[in-house]
Design brief:
mainly alpha; Growth Hormone, Chain: A; about 0% strand
């Protein structure tokens, strides 16, 4: 691909952008089935009573996904985006089959190791590729669309999986659907999605790029994103804390609802409402952040998310569960694509993929940390105290962003 034949922007790259969005919807769908079915599978098929043991499948997911985000970002800067996207789908192919034939909970944990690799590689590349294509002026919109497509996939499949599981049981039908999705996603990545790495060179050639330094080693990028740069540090901690709350929705909420005798279909409805609200509103939050800046949506989102988590303590009916899910979905929608946009703003195109990888490593490490803290917290302290502590942590994270984050520097054209 010749650089002079390429243009940055959404309109000139609309076809590839749409294909990446569809592919990311399939990536999200792989997780959507897990969110609804696996916690119920642990209770009904494997008779797990300890929440810390049950949440081990989320811990395994986070342990792999977090570091592989970093690996994916670095390899994508060196090898290109498409090979890593394909690798992600290859890792996803065995996951539904392992869940179908799992004779023990250990197989489910192992399957989630591969699911973490699938998400770490594939979702990272849809994010990075869209940033490559659109350039700096519409970055918030691009990330909003990307996360919208992924979490609409999560929401839709969460509902479908809950419905199928309520009729046919948690295995095998929901996971057969997941296997079909994995095959289609791999074929798309292999055949119709193009490499976008040349667009980073085009952006650098325009002179409109921003960032602290043009060339950084991996260790320097890790230090920059983790603690040296105030904006990137604020983004990293906010992303990690956001995943703590998401872990509660993924692992704790289905268990609490099941303990209150809600059906799998009702659990799927609540999970789907959370993901749908999160997914749809990201279209607005990403675009809004292009106009007002990144800081305001992030702070507002963390505070709303903390309120939504606290609202769980007031749930006594299905309607109340839905309200809690909506509050958390709105809060996360304000945070999720805007954090990615902020990192994209602050990082130079030459090491943007690596910076996004480091940020996503910290963010998705929240799954592992959340699975451990929430699991043992509930086992030792009970549901209410654990939920209250988590709500406070999310609220404090928003305050940290308010006072610790500088508005990322951006140039538009």
């Amino acid at each position: 691909m010749k650089e002079r034949s390429m243009k940055l922007g959404l309109r000139p790259n609309l076809t590839q952008f749409i294909l990446l969005a569809i592919n990311n919807a399939f990536v999200g769908s792989m997780v959507g089935i897990e969110r609804t079915v696996v916690p119920v599978l642990g209770k009904q098929s494997f008779h797990l009573n300890s929440l810390s043991v049950l949440l081990a499948f989320i811990v395994s997911f986070g342990i792999v996904k977090g570091p592989l985000n970093l690996v994916a970002g670095r390899l994508a800067d060196q090898w290109g985006r498409k090979p890593i996207l394909i690798l992600g789908w290859v890792c996803g192919l065995p996951v539904p089959l392992m869940a179908i034939f799992a004779p023990s909970w250990g197989w489910i944990i192992a399957a989630n190791l591969l699911l973490g690799a699938n998400q770490g590689f594939a979702w990272s590349m849809t994010v990075t590729s869209k940033i490559d294509l659109v350039g700096p002026a519409r970055r918030g919109l691009a990330l909003g669309i990307n996360e919208f497509s992924g979490y609409i996939g999560v929401a839709f499949i969460s509902g479908v999986a809950g419905y199928l599981a309520s009729i046919y049981g948690p295995r095998p039908i929901p996971f057969v659907v997941a296997e079909v999705i994995a095959v289609v996603g791999l074929l798309m990545a292999w055949i119709v999605i193009r490499e976008t790495l040349p667009y980073t060179r085009l952006e650098m050639s325009t002179g409109n790029q921003v960032g602290i330094q043009t060339r950084l080693g991996l260790g320097q990028v890790i230090a920059m994103v983790s603690f040296k740069n105030r904006t990137l540090l604020a983004c990293s901690q906010a992303g990690l804390v956001n995943k703590l709350s998401d872990t509660a929705v993924w692992g704790l909420v289905p268990v609490m609802m099941a303990q209150s005798q809600y059906s799998v279909g009702q659990i799927g409805l609540v999970s789907g409402m959370y993901a749908a609200t999160w997914g749809v509103l990201q279209l607005l939050s990403g675009t809004w952040s292009d106009k007002v800046g990144r800081k305001t949506p992030i702070v507002l989102g963390q505070i709303l998310n903390g309120i939504g988590i606290g609202f769980i303590l007031l749930t006594y009916s299905l309607v109340m569960w839905v309200i809690a899910a909506l509050l958390m979905g709105i809060g996360t929608a304000l945070v999720y694509p805007v954090l990615l946009s902020a990192v994209g703003d602050e990082a130079h195109p030459a090491w943007r993929g690596s910076a996004l990888g480091v940020y996503r490593m910290w963010r998705d490490g929240g799954y592992a940390i959340g699975g451990i803290l929430i699991g043992f917290g509930v086992d030792w302290l009970g549901n209410e105290r654990t939920i209250g502590a988590l709500a406070m942590i999310v609220f404090v994270s928003g305050v940290f962003v308010l006072f610790g984050m500088q508005e990322p520097l951006r140039k538009t054209r």
